[in-house]
Write a structure and sequence with these properties.
The protein is an all-alpha fold. The protein contains 9 helices and no strands. Helix 2 (47-76) packs antiparallel against helix 3 (83-121) and helix 4 crosses helix 7. The longest helix is centred in the middle third of the chain and has 39 residues, at 83-121.
C-alpha cells in the first residue's frame, strides 16, 4: 500500500509539474513576446531564435495534453523505486516529445518566411492562398489519418505497449519522439493555421490550445475535431473578402 500511495503521488506530481511548466511557458510567452507583431514572417528572428520561441510556444500549448500519457507512463516504470530516476526518465520523455515539435518548427519557420514574401510581393493573392490553407487544415480534421493519429493520442495504453520494448539509455527520449510523431500528425493542420493568423497571435494560440487539449482528453474530443474542421472551412470562405482576418498573410498598413 505505501508503495502504491507513493506511486500515486508521483503520478499527480508529474501532472502538476507539466501543468506548471506549461503555465510558466505561457507567462514567458505573454510577458516577453506580447509586444511582437502578429503579422507575417518570423518575428524578425533567424532560424535558431525562431526555434527557441517556437519551443516555448509548443511547451505552453502542448504540455497540458501530455499529462495523461505521462501519468500512464509512470505506471509502466513503477518498478523504479528512486523518485530521482523516475523524474529523469519522465524528463527524457518530455524532451523527446518536444524534439518532434522543434523539428516541425523548421517547417513552420519556412512557412512563416514564405508567408511574409507572399504578403509583400503578392498581396492580392495572399488572402486566397490563406483561404486555401485554412480549407486544407479544416479538411484534414475530417480525414481518417487525423482520426488515426488522434486515437493514438487518446489511447496511451496501446502506445505504451508498443514502446515497452525500447531499451538503452535513450529509451525514454525515443518514447517521447514516437508519441510526438503521432501528435504532429494529429495537430499539424492547427499549427499551419497558427502561421496563417500570425505566429505570435496570442488569442489564436489560446483557442488552439483549448481545442488540442479537449480533442485529446474530452470524451467528445473526436466530435470536437470534426466541428473544428467544419468551422475552419467556413472561416476560409470569409477570408478573400476580409483579408485582415489573416494577419499572418497581410502586411500592416504604414502609419
Amino acid at each position: 500500500m505505501p508503495g502504491r500511495a507513493g506511486l500515486s503521488v508521483s503520478h499527480h506530481a508529474a501532472e502538476v509539474a507539466l501543468i506548471g511548466c506549461a503555465a510558466l511557458a505561457w507567462y514567458l510567452t505573454v510577458s516577453g513576446l506580447a509586444d511582437m507583431s502578429a503579422g507575417p514572417g518570423t518575428m524578425g528572428l533567424e532560424l535558431w531564435g525562431f526555434l527557441g520561441v517556437w519551443t516555448l510556444m509548443m511547451a505552453a500549448m502542448m504540455l497540458p495534453s501530455l499529462a495523461p500519457l505521462t501519468s500512464t507512463y509512470l505506471r509502466t516504470i513503477r518498478a523504479v523505486r528512486s523518485p530521482r530516476t523516475r523524474g529523469i526518465r519522465t524528463t527524457g520523455l518530455v524532451l523527446g516529445y518536444l524534439l518532434t515539435w522543434i523539428g516541425f518548427g523548421v517547417i513552420a519557420y519556412a512557412a512563416a518566411a514564405l508567408a511574409a514574401l507572399l504578403a509583400q510581393d503578392a498581396p492580392d493573392a495572399a488572402p486566397w492562398v490563406g483561404a486555401g490553407v485554412l480549407a486544407v487544415a479544416g479538411a484534414y480534421q475530417l480525414t481518417p489519418l487525423k482520426d488515426f493519429c488522434l486515437r493514438h493520442c487518446r489511447s496511451p495504453v496501446a502506445f505504451l505497449l508498443h514502446a515497452s520494448g525500447y531499451k538503452g539509455r535513450l529509451r525514454d527520449v525515443r518514447v517521447g519522439l514516437y508519441h510526438g510523431v503521432y501528435c504532429v500528425g494529429c495537430c499539424w493542420g492547427l499549427m499551419v493555421v497558427l502561421v496563417a493568423v500570425g505566429v505570435m497571435n496570442l488569442a489564436w494560440m489560446a483557442v488552439l490550445t483549448g481545442v488540442i487539449f479537449l480533442e485529446k482528453t474530452w470524451k467528445y474530443g473526436p466530435f470536437l475535431s470534426r466541428v473544428t474542421g467544419v468551422a475552419l472551412i467556413v472561416f476560409a470562405l470569409f477570408v478573400p473578402a476580409h483579408p485582415e482576418l489573416l494577419p499572418g498573410l497581410v502586411m500592416s498598413a504604414p502609419m
